[in-house]
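Each field is listed here:
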Amino acid sequence: MNEEKYIQGFNNGYLLAEHKPEILKTVTQNLTPSNDYLEGIFDGKGQLEQEKVNAQIQSIEELRNKSFKRENGMEKE
């Protein structure tokens, strides 16, 4: 495995997913990760997607906790 190419692909995939997802979608829709660079691109894209899901879960849990505290009279006024 060429670690340098993988890291470069990962970083590029992450940045494209973050800033230009439409370009990344176009580029990757008919590709399979056939080399270290492309594998990195797909993994970088996946990393950003996972971070977005984790952030959404965190937001939902914060809202639930806030709602629970309010319903049970635990929230400070």
Notes: The mean pLDDT is 92.
